[in-house]
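Query protein
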Amino acid sequence: MRHSNVKPDEMILSLVLSACGRSGNINYGKAIHNFILENNSVISSYLQSSLITMYTSCGSMDSARELFDELNTKNLIASTAMVTGYSKQGQIESARLIFDQMAEKDLICWSAMISGYAESDFPQEALNLFNEMQKRELKPDQVTMLSVIAACAHLGALDQAKSIHKFVDKNGFGDALAVNNALIDMYAKCGSLERARCLFDRMPRKNVISWTSVITAHAIHGDAANALLLFHQMKANNIEPNGITFVGVLYACSHAGLVEEGRKVFSSMIKEHSITPKHEHYGCMVDLFGRANLIREALELIESMPLAPNVVIWGSLMAACRIYKENELGEFAAKRVLELDQNHDGALVFLSNIYAKEKRWDNVGEVRKLMRNRGISKERGCSRIGIGNELHEFLVGDRKHKAADKIYEKLGEVVSELKKFGYVPNTESVLVDLEEEEKKELVLSHSEKLALCFGLINGEGSCIHIVKNLRVCEDCHTFMKLVSKVYKMDIVIRDRSRFHHYRDGACSCKDYW
């Protein structure tokens, strides 16, 4: 066009910039920007908005911001592009600032902000914004609902999940395959495998995502038998599994100790389905061998992989070494993790713990000094429990909650009752140099115990649901089993990697976690 001496108008330039944004071709986008500057004495707000959208789509927020600040009137298109761009970059506060300053907002803008919160680890804010959107009587579309469902899944709040499902059905989204697939995942992550499975069974149409979602649901709830049964049914229905499906199946085998079944699945993935294993699949196999105390076999697999082992794979080996007290190999694995991520808090804490167990306090001091110098701290235990539609959050040793006095009083009562049945606090997980009584006090104030006692105070029926950010420790695991037996109630805890269903003194993980 340029060779023909035909000067492009704003519409053509805007279309070209849109293509650059969609393809992520920032170099060509900058070239078009330079062409505009060279050929236009004044850039219209329409063209400036197109440039802003191109830069935000390419992740160049500094360039986008510079152009945005030059706009005399911040129009809807440019503002929405900035909200979306900042959200994708994880700069959620900057996105919200622009969102709040907008005089008018359309559905696309609301959806962009909700999606930004959902994808940036602020699920409650996403749901709060969705509620505000409803108050303004703005009807969401499928894109909005998928973000809302994802936020609820992340949060793990079952009561809110039920409300969202009702909204979905009431507002005509119930027939959408993508929405139903998301609801399966939501219910599974909110602790209701029964609802997830019921939804799947009722679906008139299912695709590979539907089957993968329900298989993974059974896997994370420790129901490997049904996960494998569904996998075979899926293939019998001529639905070809994909790489994500195999991650779910291998995960199920890993957390149930089904070593031989896991080997067969891994082999079939390669030989029967022609799927090249990725890091996620090797990670599952290393975890499978490690959990089954086949640690040398796990190491051999790592050493024979055609891919360079990543942090997750070395971390799986490190975790297995922690469980089976293979300190020498565990130290080796932790150091491999730190070679790939020098600020990995888990590996540094693991090394510190190994040294503490071996009373190598000088080494403990070195690791902790290094952590202090780098500003690295162990992630604090945090647990959430929903009472009605309100979520309550607790940290380890938390006394900030308005009901703290009642919670600790209830905790004392529960501990006294459990001791009648042989409970003794297990302080092995406390690896700081404290007196034994101080260690017991620390263990008894773990966040999930506080959340549980708050649930007991509020009479949360026959089942209490708790979400925790870290792995449940050995003492809390024993504690929850005993509470389920003594108080004749079900307790469901979602920890970092799976669900624990406690009932009548036993756990669905069969103490294999």
